[in-house]
Design brief:
The chain is mainly α. It has one domain. The longest helix is centred in the last third of the chain and has 26 residues, at 31-56. The mean pLDDT is 86. It contains two helices and no strands. The chain has helices at residues 3-27, 31-56. Helix content is 81%, strand content 0%.
Length: 63
């Protein structure tokens, strides 16, 4: 698999996990657990967006 293919696969997995966390948060009856899961999902989605943009050449990491 190419580097770009591996990166897109990793981004896809991160987004899938973020979606799973969001769904778990929606099912949670504990407000603190819901908040924790939503925050974790948001951070994972942000990270996947950043990796996706880097893979597309939109942004470059600090060297």
């Amino acid at each position: 698999m190419s580097v770009s293919g591996e990166a897109s696969g990793r981004v896809r997995q991160m987004r899938q996990k973020a979606d799973e966390l969001k769904q778990a948060a929606e099912r949670s009856s504990d407000p603190e657990e819901r908040r924790r899961l939503e925050e974790k999902a948001r951070k994972l989605r942000d990270q996947s967006d950043q990796e996706s943009a880097m893979g597309a050449g939109d942004i470059f990491p600090d060297v």
